[in-house]
Amino acid sequence: MLVYEQNALSEEIENLVKKYGNDRPALLEILQDIQRKHKYISDFAQQEVARLMNIHPVEVNSVISFYSFLHSHPQGRNIVRLCRTIMCEHAGKEKVEQAIERELGISFGQTTKDNRITLEYTNCLGMCDMGPAMIVNDRVYTHLDPERAVNILNEIK
Amino acid sequence: MELVIEEKIKRTGPVIFSEYQAGEGIRKALSINRQDVLFELKASGLKGRGGAGFPTATKWMLSAAAVADKKFIVCNADEGEPGTFKDRVLLLEYPKLIFDGMVVGGYTIGAKTGIVYLRGEYEFMLEHLESCLEKMRNENLLGKNILGKEGFDFDIKIRFGSGAYVCGEETALIESLEGHRGEPRNRPPYPVNTGYLGYPTVVNNVETLAAIPHIITKGGEWFKQHGTDKSTGSKLFSVSGDCEKPGVYELPWGTKISELLELVGAANTKAVQVGGASGICLPQSQFDRVLAYEDAATGGSIMIFNEKRSMLKVLKNFMEFFVEESCGQCTPCRVGNIKLLEGVERIEKGNYTFAYINTLKELGKTMQVASKCGLGQSSPNSFISILENFKEEIFHTNGNGGYDGKAK
Ligand SMILES: Cc1cc2nc3c(=O)[nH]c(=O)nc-3n(C[C@H](O)[C@H](O)[C@H](O)COP(=O)(O)O)c2cc1C
Ligand code: SF4
């Protein structure tokens, strides 16, 4: 990471600590904000959070590793999470999944070469009456069919 | 937000979906004393709607009696149980009921802060919920000296989960709120005494809180008219799967499964999974059982499978879910769920013995008693009930786990 990028990130984290405080309960909120913006929490970001909150970096890492929506490795600009719980599966998730993989030329668990999309599975999204469902970043899409799912993904930048 | 639009249907129901004026419950509660609120609650017989079914009045009384400088009311909106989505509907369409319930709770137990722990998957609701809270602040239904009640200050904030099912367990939820890994704690101590940051904390499900304003305004006796003796009131059921009209239904406790199936237009139903992946799977012969705490208990998840579905595949999906979501803190659950999943995979391949299956069932029973939290205690339910209730299909048809071994 370039020095000016590091400085920008440090400043950003300082502002988050100002916003949420440096008590332990703020840790998850701070990590969630970093995740939201950067799609992952880099080693450097983890160290900065630890320093500013006065806890060991290992603590920060152990929290990140627990939650499936927090990442410590780079992801694509958009994270797509397809529900794989039983009701979505029965509603036709597999066809949607195959169409997405074919269209993007990658499998679930991978990121497109242009870094545009990371594909992930997720457990029950709470949309069981409207499956198949997926989340793109924080937006939920329901009643997917292969064509609609692919169109949605083709439109995101 | 496509979802909000999609869900703008007029809902009706005996309790939760009955008429209610925003703020009415708070007004009524503030006009009577705390003891009277607790009295109504006790009279109603309301039990927790999050799955465990603990009497709400008792929970509130314990934390009201606790002496501390701070107390908290937490709304458990982590809704992660497969097949459950009724809290989504409440949060999107009836947030006023939930928030009013939290304010009444704050008044009753003496808390100044309410926290909604919203699952990360529901982040799209944030703007909508925040605008409801802002409106309540403008109307002095939140904030200082609420509705002129001297010394009653209360506000609500929203915090997010980050994709961990186990964080719906109340002590894991508290750990998560405190900025830790969401690993369940040993109980006791219970959150009502030692909860968020060590202070007395009431954790209630979204639907439990949404029932409160109705009970306060219409009375505990009115509430009790619905349901059965042991399961008073009504319940929201999240119905999904093989039926014509999936969705959220409010029905009195005591409704028969067969009645529900008819209502939602389910045909050729082979199995009904009651209570989500942690619940039990019932065959046709048990469809006359009733939905109630004392019979087929559920936090509201009803998943319907018709005769085309492979029950082994269903079970496999559930076991994969538990293997992934186990927090790994205790051995029975961490290792046990992996073993049960392996068992399912071996049945799928036809590579098993009955002795081995029986050992796994025994393992399941051990997990039910030896696991630290409800996740590991209930994850074997599906395994045991599906292998027992659908053994014809799974073992007898051709002995390798499903229709011609080609599970659909
Ligand atoms: C693994 C696990 C997940 C749970 N998930 C939820 C949940 O998403 N929502 C909920 O209200 N309760 C959930 N519970 C139950 C809570 O621990 C707790 O009993 C409940 O929030 C209490 O509220 P109530 O008395 O109003 O039902 C879960 C329990 C376990 C063991
Ligand atoms: S039962 Fe499972 S989820 Fe619960 S504490 Fe043990 S390992 Fe964690």
Explained architecture:
- The complex is a heterodimer of chains A (157) and B (408).
- Chain A has 157 residues and is of the alpha+beta class.
- Helix content of chain A is 50%, strand content 11%.
- Chain A contains 7 helices and 4 strands.
- In chain A, strand 3 and strand 4 form a beta hairpin.
- In chain A, helix 3 packs across helix 4.
- The radius of gyration of chain A is 18 Å and the shape is elongated.
- Chain B has 17 helices and 9 strands.
- The model of chain B is unreliable at 402-408 (pLDDT under 50).
- The longest helix of chain B is centred in the C-terminal third of the chain and has 19 residues, at 331-349.
- Chain B folds into 3 domains: 12-224, Rossmann fold (3-Layer(aba) Sandwich), CATH 3.40.50; 234-306, Roll (Ubiquitin-like (UB roll)), CATH 3.10.20.600; 311-394, NADH-ubiquinone oxidoreductase 51kDa subunit, iron-sulphur binding domain (de novo design (two linked rop proteins), Up-down Bundle).
- Chain B has a 5-stranded mixed β-sheet with strand order 6-5-9-7-8.
- In chain B, strand 7 and strand 8 form a beta hairpin.
- Chain B is α/β, with parallel strands linked by helices and 408 residues long.
- The interface between A and B is large, with 39 and 53 residues.
- The structure holds flavin mononucleotide (FMN) and iron/sulfur cluster (SF4).
Q: What order do the helices and strands of chain B follow?
A: HHHHEHHEHEHEHHEEHEEEHHHHHH
Shape of chain A: elongated
Q: What portion of the residues of chain A fall into strands of 2 or more residues?
A: 5-15%
Domains of chain B, number? 3
What is the distance, rounded to the nearest whole angstrom, between the alpha carbons of the first and last residues of chain A?
Answer: 24 Å
* Coarse morphology of chain B: globular
Mean pLDDT of chain B: 94
Number of discrete domains of chain A: 2
Q: What is the second-level CATH architecture of the largest domain in chain A?
A: 3-Layer(aba) Sandwich
> Within the CATH hierarchy, at the fold level, what is the topology of the largest domain in chain B?
Rossmann fold
Topology pattern of chain A, helix = H, strand = E? HHHHEHHEEEH
How many E strands of chain B?
9
* Biggest sheet details of chain B: 5 strands, mixed
